[in-house]
Amino acid sequence: MRRYSTDGGDPARRADHGSHAPDGAGGPTAAEGRPETSGRAAPEPPEADGYAVTCTGLVHTFGETTAVDGLELSVRDGEVFGLLGPNGAGKTTAIRCITTLLPVPAGTIRVFGHDAAGERMAVRRLLGYVPQQLSADSGLTGRENVSLFARVFDVPRRERTARVGQALAAVDLTDAADRLAKTYSGGMVRRLELAQALVSAPRLLILDEPTIGLDPIARTNVWEHINAVRAATGMTVLVTTHYMDEADQYCDRVALMHRGRIRALGTPDELRTGLGERRGTAGNGELPTLEDVFRDIAGSGLDDRSGEFSDVRSTRRTASRVG
Ligand SMILES: Nc1ncnc2c1ncn2[C@@H]1O[C@H](COP(=O)(O)OP(=O)(O)OP(=O)(O)O)[C@@H](O)[C@H]1O
Ligand SMILES: [Mg+2]
Predict the structure, then answer these.
(1) Residue 95 alpha carbon, nearest atom of ligand 1
(2) Which end of the chain has fewer CB atoms within 10 angstroms, the N or the C?
(3) How confident is the model at residue 65 (pLDDT cuts 50, 70, 90)?
(4) Where is the composition biased (Basic and acidic residues) (predicted)?
C-alpha cells in the first residue's frame, strides 16, 4: 500500500530538472522510486513520454470571452509546476479542462499520455484536485469529508478506512478528524481539502490557489505537507498561486500566463536572471524578484489591450490584505 509520510519532507526541496525550455519542451524527468499504487490501480500510461501534462493549442471560450487562447503547456513528471498570472488570465479554466471538469473544445490535453477528452475516467483516476473554491462540507467531520472523496474517487472499500486515516495524518489532522469542519481554522480547512485530494493517491496533484487567505505560518504549513507527500510518493504538483514568494521557493518551474497563453516559462532563477539581462542590471548584484517578472509580463502591453495592470495590482493588494 502506498503510504504517506510526514517525516520525509523538505519544504525547500527542489528537484533538478535541467535547463530552461522556452517552448515547454525539454528533457523528461521521470520521478524515481515511485511506489506502486494499490487498490484501484491507476491506469498505465499509453506512452511514457516523461510528462504529467501536455496541452497543445488548448482553447476554451465562455460566450464571447476567450479564457484560454491556444495554450501550450508541458508539466514534467515529478516536478512542482507553478502556473502564475493576473486575475482572469485563464489559469482556473485551463486547470478545469485538465481535470476534465470542462470540455476541450479545441486542442488536446494529455495527462500521463491519456487524452483528457477521450479518456476522462482514466485521467480522473490519476489526479487529485483542490479547487479554488471551497470544496469541504462544513456540516461533516474532517473524516467524513475525506471518506466522501474516497468513495467518489473509487478507493476500494476494504482500503478506505486506512487510506482516509493516512490522508488525514499526512496533513496533521488526525486529532481533529472527528470534529465538524465548520470548527476548523482556514488553514485546517485547506489541509482538509488537501487530504481529500490525496486520498486517491494521485500521481498528479492539482492545486488552485491552495494558500489564498492563509497566514504566513499556515501557508508554510500547507507547503510542508505537500512536499512531504511529494517526497514520499514522487507525485507531480501543478499549482496556481498569486504569492510570488511561494512560487519562487517551492516551484521547480513556473509559467506566467496572461490573456489565455503562456508568456514566460522557466525556473524562477531563469526568469529573474532573464529580466535582469533584459534590463541590463544583471551582474550588479540586484537580481529582480519574481514579482518584478510578473509585473514585467502582465504589464508589458503584450497585446493591444492595455490598462489592466493597475487593476491587477489593486487586486493583489486586496489579496495580500486578506492573506
Ligand atoms: N463560468 C464562467 N462563465 C463565464 N466566464 C467565465 C467563467 N469562468 C471564467 N470565466 C472568464 O474566463 C476568464 C478566465 O477566468 P479564470 O477564472 O480562468 O482566470 P484565473 O486566471 O483563474 O483568474 P484568478 O486569478 O482571478 O483566479 C475571465 O475573463 C473570466 O471572467
Ligand atoms: Mg483562478
Answers:
(1) 18
(2) N
(3) very high
(4) 10-20, 302-314
